[in-house]
TrEMBL record:
Keyword terms, alphabetized: Hydrolase, Magnesium
Matches recorded under SUPFAM superfamilies: ComB-like
Protein name (record): Probable 2-phosphosulfolactate phosphatase
Enzymatic class: hydrolase
Cofactor dependence: Mg(2+)
Biological source species: Paenibacillus rhizovicinus
Length: 235
């Protein structure tokens, strides 16, 4: 099995996804929020790239959610905090989501045979699902402000570690960035939360009063939900 890690959405080229399973990673916070929303019973999450696209869909969906630069978009029902996506708020409802980086990455990944949303919360479940799909894998780190984000790299390393532990997967061959992220995760030694808090995105969230989101997003394998793109909807 070939595993390629891509450092940020700006480095993503569509032809790198063809005939592969793509796992999009945006730990702080888009993919963590998508997992939380589906775990809370949302009927589906439609990722869109722009605020205008989201507003244009307002009549055909039930909720608008999203952020720009870590802040909720004015007039939207929800932001991008996983703790907002409770059963009471999203249960049985379809949600349009637009974020600074994560939803862009999901759109870039759509040339893949399969597209999954991965996070620290569902890393093990993502690894199992990706292995069952029997394709080479691309781990697309969304990044932050068009640059590599530490938290996404840590998650990529965790997912590779989980894949290597599966008896059904043999002969893993990864690119240099994948090997580096696996080493980074293994050296974290149980300090993921502290590393996320010290990261650029983590410091920004703390400054904006969203430190609790880091607590949620740093929980390893707390969910068995694996969001998967079907058409234009993550279910």
């Amino acid at each position: 099995m070939q595993i390629e890690v891509i450092s940020s959405v700006n480095e993503a080229q569509a032809d790198r996804f063809v005939h592969r399973t793509v796992i999009v990673i945006d730990v702080l916070r888009a993919t963590s929020t998508i997992v939380a929303a589906l775990e809370a019973g949302a009927a589906g999450i439609m990722p869109v790239e722009t605020v205008l696209e989201a507003r244009a869909l307002q009549c055909s969906v039930q909720l608008l959610a999203g952020e720009r630069f870590c802040r909720k978009i004015p007039g939207f029902d929800l932001g991008n905090s996983p703790e907002e996506f409770t059963p009471a708020a999203v249960g049985g409802k379809r949600v349009v989501l637009t974020t600074t980086n994560g939803t862009r990455a999901l759109h870039k990944a759509m040339r893949g045979d399969y597209v999954l949303a991965g996070s620290l919360n569902n890393a093990a479940a993502c690894a199992v699902t990706a292995a069952e799909l029997r394709r080479d894998i691309v781990l697309l780190c969304a990044g932050s402000h068009n640059e590599f984000a530490l938290e996404d790299g840590l998650c990529a390393g965790l997912i590779i570690s989980e894949l290597k532990q599966l008896g059904s997967v043999s002969g893993i061959d990864m690119n240099d960035l994948g090997a580096a992220m696996l080493g980074l995760y293994r050296s974290s030694d149980g300090s993921l939360r502290e590393m996320l808090i010290r990261s650029t995105t983590g410091r920004r969230l703390v400054k904006n009063g969203n430190a609790r989101d880091i607590d949620h997003c740093s929980q390893v394998n707390s969910s068995s939900i694996v969001p998967r793109l079907q058409g234009d909807m993550l279910v």
